[in-house]
Hints:
Protein name: UPF0125 protein KJF94_00340
Helix content: 25-40%
CATH architecture: Roll
Number of helices: 3
Strand content: 25-35%
Low-confidence stretches: none
CATH class: Alpha Beta
Mean pLDDT: 90
Number of strands: 5
Radius of gyration: 20 Å
CATH superfamily: Beta-grasp domain
Pfam families: Ub-RnfH (PF03658)
Oligomer: single chain
Family: Belongs to the UPF0125 (RnfH) family.
Amino acid sequence: MVEVVIEVEVVYAAVDRQVLLSVTVAAGASVRAALLASGVDREFPELDLAECAVGIFGKVVVDPDTRQLQAGDRIEIYRPLLADPKEVRRLRAAKAAEAKARNQ
């Protein structure tokens, strides 16, 4: 019996460089299986593929061990945020209000 395979992409952007890898996996493979098959963890040793957040075309995948892939999917590996965007906006608004108060 012939095994059906599909091609997907795995992308990761580190601070200093990005990588886009084409990976061929068996049809019905999980996101986690494609990540491991890509070898991206060998190119970026700081990546912990068991813990990092991943998504497909910008949508977070909650359970990469069970989410099955479709041909042409792009798996994105996300880095942790350095700062909470809501907190940054709150601090910026407070700083602007303080500057406005000083100028009046």
